[in-house]
Each structure stands twice: as C-alpha cells, then as structure tokens.
Design brief:
There is one protein chain. This protein has one helix and 17 strands. The protein has 333 residues and is mainly β. The protein has a single domain, classed as Autotransporter beta-domain (Lipocalin, Beta Barrel). The strands form two sheets. It has a twelve-stranded antiparallel β-barrel. The chain has a three-stranded antiparallel beta sheet with strand order 9-13-14, with no helix packed on it.
Length: 333
C-alpha cells in the first residue's frame, strides 16, 4: 500500500521532471532559433576565416567532470553547487611567453530524480563566469553553459541486511546540449582554448558509479567518458575520460549526519581538432587528491570539497592546474 506521504513524494518528483523537461526544451528551442538567425552571418564569416591563420596551440577542456554527479548523503536531490578552478597558462604560443592566472567559476543547478526503483534522471545546468589576467588586461566572459541530462540504471544492488557488504552498481548515459556560447575570438593568441562558456557541440556521456559499503564505511568509484563532436566553427574538443574513487565514513550523530571524504580523481583529454586536423599541444592528463565533508540535517545537506593536483601534463606543460574547490547545498527529494 502506498501512503499519503509516498503519494506526495511521487507527485513532487513528477512535477520536478516536468519542469526540468520544459526548461531544457526551451533552452534547445532558443539555441536552434539563435543558430537559424545567425546562419547567414556565420557562413559569411566562415569564408573569411578560411583565409586566416588559426592558432594551432590549444588548451585542455576545463569541465570539472571528475567532481562527479552525485552526493554522498542524498541519493535523490535537487541542489545548488558552486565550484572554482584555478589555472596558470602561457599568455601566447612562444616558449618565453609570460604565465597568466585564469579563474573558472561555475554556479550549477544539479539534481538526481528517481523515475522508478531502478532508474534515475540527473541534470546539470551551469552558469559560468570566467576571468584571466593577460598582458593586454583583464578578460571576462560569462553566460549559461552547456546543460547535461543523464539517465542512470541500477544494474545491481544488494539489500542492506542481506550481506556484510552492500553493493550498488549504476550505469547510464546522457547528452550535453550546446546551450553555452562558443566564441572563437576567446582563443586568439591563447594556449588555453577552454576559456569558453560552451563547446558549441552536442556531446555524449557514458557514466558508471559503483558503491561498496560495510556499515558506515564506504568506497564510491565513478568512471565517465565524454564523446565530443564538431561544432559549427569546425572545432572539436578531444574526448574526455574522468575517473575517481572516494573513501567515506558516515557519522550518524543525534543532531546531524557527517560524512568526511578522501580520495583520488583524474582526467584524460584527447587531442583537439579543427577542420579535421589534429592540433598540437591540446591533449593531456591530470591526477588530483580529493578531500571534503558533507553535513546533513533533515532534508537539507551542505558539502565542501577541495582538489589539489598530484601529477599533471596538460597541453605539453603549457597549462598548469593549481587547485579546485566546491561548495553545495542540497534538498532531499
């Protein structure tokens, strides 16, 4: 029998899904209308760009994918997350070009909504505001980023009281919609060509998550792969592989729940292409240490995480990641 509280929760989830679908639909419609209006201008500019010397030294994609798509305290939630990424890169393509600081800032609505007992829908709606200090002055860009929507299916899950260890394996996939703007002018003379609010391309995600627990101690491991396509500027960012493993422990205190976390996370970037040609110094890899804590009371939780690089090789050492940190506030569905 389904009681009144369960009926209310199911109704709330349905409403959230409808709102999410309508919101994403409006973003896609707005993107299509904008592209159709500017198509003639784009084609005219493309004729000019074919004769220009394009810079072939590009950066890695600073997506923060290794931060993951879920919370340790909330299996199903809607929340707000802010994360900051700090980089240093060459201000130019030459060996003696000066180093400049770059700050990538993102405010993100993120959610994980149950559809059935085994199926969940996740969505990320980012707003970016980035800045960097170049020799010519400070550059700032901001705007809506690329929205991601994913579906996760629980392939295997043990009952909490069935074994000493409990296991949960989820597999899924999704799409990243080009709702963010890709401006080729941002890449002029710059090593880090990820100084953008969007890639301008439809990209596809393959996602997996495995959690093993013994009482209050657990280990969460995630793997995801992003297949990136060519945008209208005939630019294609390299495919990206993200991985991470986080050890956590639940302190179930009378007043609050605390979950400290410690782990590793990494990213591997493929080579970027333009006009079908591979661009040098655009691939790379990085390994981070990761630590943080989540605290929950009632239906609300707050989390803080930080990531520091252990080893990195980005864009032939022309880009260096300094640190990342994030804070999130979630409401349990």
């Amino acid at each position: 029998m389904i009681n009144d509280s369960q009926n209310i929760k199911i109704m709330k989830n349905k409403i959230l899904i409808i709102i999410l679908v309508l919101f994403v639909n409006q973003l896609v419609i707005a993107k299509i209308e904008k592209d159709s209006i500017s198509r003639f201008t784009f084609q005219k500019m493309q004729l000019l760009e074919d004769f220009e010397d394009d810079c072939d030294a590009c950066g890695c994609s600073a997506s923060g994918g290794s931060m993951g798509f879920s919370s340790m305290l909330n299996n199903n939630f809607v929340g707000l997350r802010y994360f900051n990424q700090s980089y240093s890169s060459r201000d130019g393509i030459f060996a003696n070009s000066p180093w400049v600081k770059e700050n990538f800032n993102t405010v993100q609505i993120w959610t994980k909504i149950p559809i059935t007992e085994k199926i969940q829908i996740s969505a990320l709606v980012p707003y970016h505001f980035h800045n960097r200090e170049r020799s010519t002055g400070t550059e700032n860009i901001q705007g809506l980023g690329d929205v991601s929507v994913m579906a996760m299916y629980s392939v295997y899950q043990t009952h909490k009281d069935s074994t000493v260890f409990t296991h949960k394996l989820q597999l899924g996939g999704g799409v990243k919609i080009p709702t963010g703007k890709f401006d080729e002018a941002n890449n002029t003379g710059s090593v880090n060509q990820s100084f953008q609010v969007g890639t301008g391309s439809w990209d596809y995600l393959l996602v997996s998550e495995y959690v093993i627990k013994k009482k209050n101690l657990g280990l969460s491991t995630m793997l995801n792969y992003i297949l990136k396509t060519e945008n209208q500027k005939q630019y294609r960012f390299g495919n990206q592989f993200n991985y991470g493993s986080t050890l956590f422990y639940l302190f179930d205190l009378p007043a609050v729940k605390l979950v400290p976390q410690l782990g590793l996370a990494g990213e591997v970037y493929g080579t970027n292409k333009q006009y079908g040609e591979k661009l040098p110094d655009t691939s790379g890899d990085i390994l981070f240490s990761k630590f943080g804590i989540e605290a929950g009371k009632g239906d609300f939780s707050i989390g803080v995480n930080a990531m520091l690089p252990i080893n990195q090789h980005l864009s032939n050492s022309k880009i260096e990641a300094n640190y990342r940190w994030s804070v999130n506030l979630n409401y349990t569905l």
